[in-house]
């Protein structure tokens, strides 16, 4: 297991029992059993997909609207009790752990799509709406929300972690697709951080300050999102390459030449091997790219064919592509199964999903060095990458009871981050910091930037009640 | 003239003469005549394109590198002297005025393109590089920087005002195109707000906090920008429409259907009339759209033809389009001349360029109500719009010596902002707040959001030395 020293205690005391009791009684009086102290519920809300030790909150409140969230935060502010916002619980880095206890506010029931403005290509949703449900809701209007992190995450959580995923190369990340937010501030007041205008120069960008703040500056209670028209046509394609470098070079050439690729995903040879085992396929066990193109019928054909030419120049092939939905699904099946295929490599083992991001020109080098490191560390760790962004995931599959393997894993993770930072990259492209990557913040950011972050946090949450012990050591 | 009550004094005293002298002597000793107190230079740096009264700084320093900027800011911090960053001086809202005097730091000589990373589609520039010079520099590499606010603004200034312009509908605004910044903080320390990774979830988004902060949180000394490959082909098009609404509806349909239009500009009938007079053209004096499409040869042909079909459905036409550079230039000439044509409507008069932005579905209504208001106010004020974003400019042409006209103008400007805000829009889509739009901040943002902005400003610049008296009343 990852040593618990990874999750330092935040610099404020745990609240007194009386403070916890005051919040509990206040919420119970008003909301009855929507405030629970059940251990099972608390543990489930603490930490689902992370390796960090489970640190449950003292209580969980299932909120139904912004007024209830504001009432709960106000009560917590009065008594100095930590507040941990909770959406779908699909984050990876211990974001929802409660190292100081406190109140977890579960917003999953705030799952209404409040408005869809088709002419403006935007919508307003509550934070508990998941991306899949949103896209089901939008389908009849001919619209879609492009950010796809894989998991059926909540929009609130995706906003809080600055999520992105497979479509980001074309449509950007949450940072680029949130127009405005409604937020309950640490003092319980409700703020709207923007309007539905597509752009504004009217003051500090509070929206972007909240996007990626991981619940440390407030609780997001409403999100206004940009939408896209469902493309008239989609083409999908796959192409094996002799090396990771050839696959990356093909990606660079495609993007440089303005090919508006919507998704371009890399699976390394280890990942393809895992997929073959899991899905009983016979793919060539070399690095492979999965692509998707969005546009008109003619446009997506042209894009696919152009990419095929670029791939051939770099020794890739056979290049396969399709526009019919069933054939597209078939081509992408292997990519969709990647996570489960990795898990299946060692039944009973645990996986840890981590991510780093580097400039595109350094991606091949970073992935290849990482592969060597994996081999030298004696680990099993397939790699998949959002290669158009220089972002890749390593998914070590580890025996949780093998202390030596855990030690080797820990060393590998440290080197992975150092490697990305040395290549002008970042310790996380899309998963966020949470607890588990806090220690890397000092490596990635200079002292003056860290002080800026601390100053902002202290200014907006002077009592440090909002998700304490996350992102940055105060 | 716009009453000077528009520009309230910021809540801190003017520095003592001794403090000014200490900064002046310190900089003179080190930099000689790169520190100047010439009145002409000071007035030129205060306020170039705004109607706000000229408020010159006490002195102007021509900085050559980040160390010099840091030295100057450190000195100002020690003595409590205001710092006003200055790039090309092309901002509209009194951003560079010095209501409390202080030191203007002119970074125009920091005009180096420090690095171009063609494979990563990014570059690193100093703040004094102008966008035209950057694009000249990039041309041979087959790259371009898409943000085009019209003026040949400096990249530092464009970053500070969150500028955008004609290409934003396709390529986003400065917010979307700045990867990272180097900033001299109000205490003189130098911070880097990000890396060259295309995306990151590693902590608060300091980059976006600085973009649009108008120099109130620090001096930008280096900018890492996203770039685009120069498209293989460009098509340009124009189309007159019977009404503003028909032009806006055509735009909405095009965007909804996923047509990746690169520029789509509206000129209203008054603007077309002005163009006809100025450029001796015979355009039909009805609302007109100017478009540009970027892509492959086939792609831009398809896009232009599709738009032509949409325009015809909505009663627009004749639709003209071209791909040859000289023909494209000819089609767009009228749009390029718009500002000069407006100026020429009343020789000797002054123009005021203002902007608001509303959701696209409200744009036609907002423009039409604004046109009625212009007529009823007895003003001359052509309108051009970045119609794909819902952003439009009104360019009143006013006799500066006519007090009654100035009064009518003032009332009109107030109503323009109120109209945009009532339609879920913003008081400025791209020009920024500066001094002149400070009074609208309370109308646009709720009290909690304004308090967040104040808290951030106070936390990062507790002595309020950075461009005081801009954006927000403290």
Automatic annotation (TrEMBL), chains A, B:
Residues 53-230 form the FAD-binding PCMH-type domain. It comes from the Bacteria. This is D-lactate dehydrogenase (cytochrome). Its cofactor is FAD. Keywords: FAD, Flavoprotein, Oxidoreductase, Transit peptide. The keyword Transit peptide applies. The keyword Translocase does not apply. Its EC number is 1.1.2.4. It is an enzyme of class 1 (oxidoreductase). It comes from Alsobacter ponti. SUPFAM superfamilies: FAD-binding/transporter-associated domain-like, FAD-linked oxidases, C-terminal domain. Belongs to the FAD-binding oxidoreductase/transferase type 4 family. PANTHER family: D-LACTATE DEHYDROGENASE, D-LACTATE DEHYDROGENASE, MITOCHONDRIAL-RELATED.
